[in-house]
Amino acid sequence: MAWSLSHIPEIELIESLTLTRLAQLKDELIALKELPVRGVYQQRAQRYAFELEQMSVCHRQRKQGRDRRRNHYHNTLQGEALTTALESLKRESQQDSIEHRHLKQKRAQELAPFAESIAQTDQRIQKLKQQYHTLSQQWQMQMQTAYAARQTGSDTTSLPILYQDEVLLVVDKPAGLLSVPGRRYHQQDSVLSRLRCQRPNDAFLQVVHRLDQATSGILVLALCAGAHRTLGQQFSQREVRKTYTAILSRPIAMESGTIDLPLWGNPDERPKQSVNRVYGKSSVTHFQVLQPGKHPRVEFMPHTGRTHQLRVHAAYPQGLNSPILGDSLYGQANQTERLQLHATSLQFMHPVTQKQMHFTSEPQF
């Protein structure tokens, strides 16, 4: 179906129905994963594991005793007396085996109904996951189709291309533009969406990493699956060198240093990140003041890539205690038109030629 602006109410209705259904599926999945039967099964399985281990210890001790007695019988008995004594040891061994087998049978009989219930639940979970995935994919395709139709004939702002070849594309992302489309129709305008419209012949086009919507600067996209995988590994293994330029909202005392804070995304505070010593994951940023003053210009060199890492490291008292200028989430709202944070340089190894690639972009602030 070719969507147009006149179809927006219809799109919004489909969006509402789809997101409601996706939320229902997610809630049902969570409920199934938290069914009490799983806990009961685990508790009883652990109890039987303990009983079997205790029985095994006891049986090993009995076997050691029988081995000593067997040696003693061979040294002190002969003929029918020896045969009778050895038969007695054999019966004791058989009795231990029977005892062990009976406990395992009892375990199997008691756990079987729980295991069957869990198996049925897992089948239901897989079915719901497939439904969720299919519905989500269908909705994404509908939104992309609607977005593409909206762009047809319009003068979409082209993105500055810093580099391109057969396997990768490097662009200079403007502030305020998403890296990838969101879940809602009004969140479809993004670097990826624009490039897919402008480059329809690129069968594979995916971002390798992301920048916050408010952050501008260098963004890398892959034009084939192999390049996407290889570049993704470089980012995940921290082999990519990145620098950012930011302007802070107030002076700081240090000229350079390293910030190491455990960041955690509290589900109740999304998208905001916080410092949490219990649940947080390590995040490390090196910094250098480029220009001191009332609003110091700082260069950030992140070692890790946590969500909002630089923004939190700048804002929190345990970091620089000086939010990035224009950061309404971690600092003061309406200070500037945009967040003063820009991805200034990026260095990585080309996924095919293995040559070092180095790109730079000057901030417009």
Give me some keywords for this one.
single chain; 365 residues; alpha+beta; Alpha-Beta Plaits; Pseudouridine synthase; 3 domains; eleven-stranded mixed beta sheet; 11 strands; elongated; catalytic activity, acting on RNA
Fold and architecture overview:
InterPro entries: PsdUridine_synth_cat_dom_sf (IPR020103), PsdUridine_synth_RluA-like_CS (IPR006224), PsdUridine_synth_RsuA/RluA (IPR006145), RluA_PseudoU_synthase (IPR050188). It holds the Pfam family PseudoU_synth_2. Residues 168-315 form the Pseudouridine synthase RsuA/RluA-like domain. Keywords: Coiled coil. This is RNA pseudouridylate synthase. A hairpin with a 3-residue loop joins β1 (161-164) and β2. Helices cover 46% and strands 19% of the residues. The two termini are 43 Å apart. It is elongated, with a radius of gyration of 32 Å. The mean pLDDT is 93. The protein has 3 domains: 33-148; 161-234, Pseudouridine synthase I, catalytic domain, N-terminal subdomain (Alpha-Beta Plaits); 239-360, Pseudouridine synthase (2-Layer Sandwich). The longest helix is centred in the first third of the chain and has 73 residues, at 79-151. α1 packs antiparallel against α3 (79-151) and α2 runs antiparallel to α3 (79-151). It has helices spanning 8-33, 36-76, 79-151, 191-198, 225-236, 309-315; strands at 161-164, 168-173, 206-207, 216-222, 241-247, 256-264, 274-275, 281-291, 297-302, 341-349, 356-360. The chain has 365 residues and is α+β, with helices and mostly antiparallel strands. Strands 1, 2, 3, 4, 5, 6, 7, 8, 9, 10 and 11 form an 11-stranded mixed sheet that branches.
